[in-house]
Amino acid sequence: MGDILIATSGYSYDDWRGAFYPPELPKDEFLRYYALFFPFVELNFSYYAMPRTTSLAAMAARTPSSFRFSIKAHKSLTHEPGPLWRDDAATFARAAGALADTGRLAAVLVQLPYRFHHTPENRSYLAALLAALAPLPLVVEFRNDEWRGERVYDELDRRGVGVAMVDRPELPGLPPVDERVTGGLAYLRFHGRNADAWWNGDATSRYDYCYSKEELAAALPRIRRMARAGNLFVAFNNHARGNAVRNAGELKALL
């Protein structure tokens, strides 16, 4: 069985002051402090702003050599691709490659929106995108249940690409709660179960949820089975009000 690495999606939240960060801690010290407690972090800023090699190298320098980064693909590659998406992919890959070259990159998270349906055009685009980002370690998160199926999983496995399993609200059309591992990359994201805000909430309210210890305990068998394939990266995305930090600590204690 591999290691189970538990962390959060993002770290630079002002509302974590008091809940996790000391109130007086300067924000430019957040990452250094975070790395004292967690083995990796998912970087979200890279979805909104194209990452730069220099900024990622500076972040790596503020953390121990064993600390890893999972970096979310830029929106120009997943949500808003245009005619020059290949140029954007090359720019992104160069920046993420700086982490990969030093052994600090856990994965590039290719998070696809619900509207990314399982069509021939989208299948072709995804194949081209994964090829453009190779040989970086890649994990795809589907937000639409249409992508569930052995043919999709087998193709990801053939390409050495992981598939992100998710814990999410019980709503029609969302991917199932599952425990698949492809490409030798085991990855699990806890989004919370806030069904009321899932479709019409913002990036904070959608994930505003705190798991109970009973809910976390119920996930333990699935987590342990996924870890049989190797190291398992577990990221809590329910970041509002420090819930992600709290639940990450509770899950670690349960394990």
Task: Describe the protein in words.
Helix content is 37%, strand content 16%. The protein has 255 residues and is an alpha/beta fold. The protein has a single domain, classed as TIM Barrel (Alpha-Beta Barrel), CATH 3.20.20.410. Strands 1-8-7-6-5-4-3-2 form an eight-stranded parallel sheet. The mean pLDDT is 96.
Question: How many separate domains make up the residues?
Answer: 1
CATH architecture: Alpha-Beta Barrel
What is the strand content? 15-25%
Strand order of the largest sheet: 1-8-7-6-5-4-3-2
Distance between the termini: 13 Å
Number of strands: 8
Coarse morphology: globular
Radius of gyration of CA atoms, rounded to a whole number: 17 Å
Mean pLDDT: 96
SSE topology sketch:
Elements: E1 4-8, H1 30-34, E2 40-43, H2 45-48, H3 53-61, E3 68-72, H4 75-78, H5 85-101, E4 105-111, H6 120-133, E5 138-141, H7 150-159, E6 162-167, E7 186-190, H8 195-198, H9 213-227, E8 232-236, H10 243-254
Parallel strand pairs: 1-8, 2-3, 3-4, 4-5, 5-6, 6-7, 7-8
Helix pairs in contact: 3-5, 9-10
Relevant terms:
single chain; alpha/beta; TIM Barrel; eight-stranded parallel sheet; 16% strand
Give a short synopsis of this structure.
By secondary structure, this protein is an alpha/beta fold. The protein is 37% helix and 16% strand.
